[in-house]
């Protein structure tokens, strides 16, 4: 067993240089072994991606088992409420959110996955509407809000996905889009319950977003301020 004379790290018998400090190894009593295999790879190679299919199968099996068991139990209990629809809808939604991204992680499937995620939420809420007999509020209130949320996610994906933006720009986009989203939510709620839109609480949220956006934009536009923020907050 040999040790580096410079840093003291333990050396393998095949090491001609210290792997830590690169000091040449010279030991008259134990010459460098040139024939044995190295304890670590000598060439840089990419690690082959592991298969995620077993994880997808496991998640599918667990969610399907929970959905089927709750559905059968709901039938045997003979209750008037179809409570199993909540569990089945949640299982379907979780499956769409987890399994397809595991099996298909290419960038060109982003829009399809986003569409599937929004549809999963819409299906889940529709099952709640079936149990509560509330198709009216689903079609005129819940579904528009879900689609509005999907449009917000699509905007985030298109503006921040293909190219990496700075932290300040990403924060500004998120805050601004949240303000616009609250305006849409209040508009849908007011039109459904009152028949017309009268802006109220959403304007307060928009005002807060504007107050937060102004310093972000100023810092983003002034190079000296931007560098100071990056140094202090490690951004």
Provide structural commentary.
- Helix content is 66%, strand content 2%.
- By secondary structure, the chain is mainly α.
> Would you tell me the overall average pLDDT?
81
Shape: flat
Spans where pLDDT lies below 50 across 5 or more residues? none
Question: What's the SSE pattern?
Answer: EEHHHHHHH
Feature tags:
235 residues; mainly alpha; two-stranded antiparallel sheet; 7 helices; 2 strands
Topology of this structure?
Elements: E1 2-3, E2 10-11, H1 53-77, H2 84-103, H3 110-132, H4 135-160, H5 167-194, H6 201-221, H7 223-233
Antiparallel strand pairs: 1-2
Write a concise synopsis of the structure shown:
With about 240 residues, this protein is mainly α. The protein has helices spanning about 55-75, 85-105, 110-130, 135-160, 165-195, 200-220, 225-235, and strands spanning about 1-5, 10. Helix 4 (about 135-160) runs antiparallel to helix 5, helix 5 (about 165-195) packs antiparallel against helix 6 and helix 6 crosses helix 7 (about 225-235).
